[in-house]
Write a structure and sequence with these properties.
Number of strands: 9
Order of helices and strands: EHEHEHEEHEHEEHHEHHHHH
Number of helices: 12
Strand content: 5-15%
Shape: globular
Radius of gyration: 22 Å
CATH architecture of the largest domain: Alpha-Beta Complex
CATH topology of the largest domain: Spore Coat Polysaccharide Biosynthesis Protein SpsA, Chain A
Length: about 350
């Protein structure tokens, strides 16, 4: 069997018919770049389906300038619903989900097809953002490089799925009933949740690190932390507690959990310096441990962006651990509250009977 990095040099096309599915809402700023990149693919056996989730800008007109099948939904239902609708209309053996703010490379579809051909045991695969984000501002560079680093340093045998650029066999997608559009009407962890279901019933998911795409989303500090907290940390915690399964991959590795714990010990020690000056020594030791545990992460940014950028990354990395831990606490509270409401409803229903 060929190794993944050897697929880079495979020129022979596969016979898989790929359905590229692009959900979009008011995506006129980036959809054109996305579609242009798809139709510049050197893989000939594909269709492109754009699912418009009731856009109010000129998204549809833009999509019509390409040779794509366009589905216009009558009611806005969110990205999970749009992807499911696209999958239902698709004819391909492989369903490839691509975000409307992503551009792919000419050989991306070929890599997807060859990966499935060379690894018939996998049911799904996904890639990562590349290390050259499309937006030049600091937070866009930081967020996308963060994503790139996490995916590139994680296990290839994945326990999740990523719909930014992720592919799944059509029959498997039907088997698991696609994305949970009822639970996730707003874009958040619908892809992670589907990946979890796939893994639970024995399907293999491949994190294909050589399969990289470019992200063009603009991040500010506000939408960065809000997305991490409300669209990731909180619902992800609820899902893990509900499934009683705690992932140890991607940004949930043991070193990430320990880093969060150390950071809170540092904060506690700072507060305790009021009582004892000796806590300064404790803070120094804890900071040293924190930096040692994260030296690969900071080294990655140092290599890619230089010293000044890396120095700017450090405080926001600290904040990331703080609000992620807060998200775990809030998600745990939500899980307990939802369970309490569920039990109360059952008790009320039984009394009525």
């Amino acid at each position: 069997m060929k190794q993944l990095n050897e697929l880079e040099n495979v020129d022979v096309m596969s016979n898989y018919f790929i359905s590229v599915i692009i959900p979009v809402y008011n995506g006129s700023k980036t959809l054109g770049y996305c579609l242009k990149s798809v139709f510049e693919s050197n893989y000939p056996i594909f269709e492109c389906i754009v699912v418009d989730d009731c856009s109010t800008d000129n998204t549809v007109e833009l999509a019509e300038s390409f040779d794509a099948k366009i589905l216009q939904l009558n009611k806005q239902g969110g990205a999970a619903h749009a992807r499911n609708e696209g999958a239902e209309a698709a004819k391909g053996d492989i369903l490839l989900f691509v975000d409307a703010d992503v551009t792919i490379y000419p050989d991306s579809l070929n890599k997807v097809a060859k990966a499935f051909e060379e690894h018939p045991d996998i049911s799904a695969l996904f890639g990562s953002y590349d290390d050259r984000p499309g937006r030049p501002n600091f937070f866009s560079q930081y967020k996308n490089l963060f994503h790139h680093y996490i995916h590139q340093t994680s296990e290839e045998d994945a326990s999740t799925f990523w719909s930014g650029f992720g592919a799944i066999k059509r029959e498997v997608f039907i088997e698991v009933n696609g994305f949970d559009q009822n639970k996730y009407s707003n874009p958040c962890i619908e892809d992670i949740e589907m990946g979890s279901r796939l893994k639970q019933i024995g399907h293999q998911i491949l994190l294909y690190k050589q399969l990289q795409v470019k992200h063009h989303k603009h991040y500010s500090f506000s939408n960065l932390w809000r997305s991490d907290l409300f669209d990731r940390a909180i619902p992800w915690t609820v899902m893990m507690l509900s499934n009683k399964e705690f992932a140890s991959d991607l940004n949930l590795k043991i070193e990430h959990k320990l880093s969060a714990g150390i950071l809170f010990l540092i904060i506690f020690s700072i507060l305790m310096t009021v009582k004892s000056i000796w806590f300064i020594a404790v803070i120094t030791i804890l900071l040293a441990i924190f930096f040692i545990m994260n030296h690969d992460f900071y080294g990655f940014f140092l290599n890619k962006k230089g010293r000044l950028f890396t120095l700017k990354v450090i405080p926001f990395h600290f904040l990331y651990y703080l609000y992620s831990t807060l998200g775990f606490f809030m998600g745990s509270c939500k899980y307990l509250y939802d369970n309490h409401l569920y039990k109360m409803r059952n008790i009320t229903s039984k009394k009525k009977i």
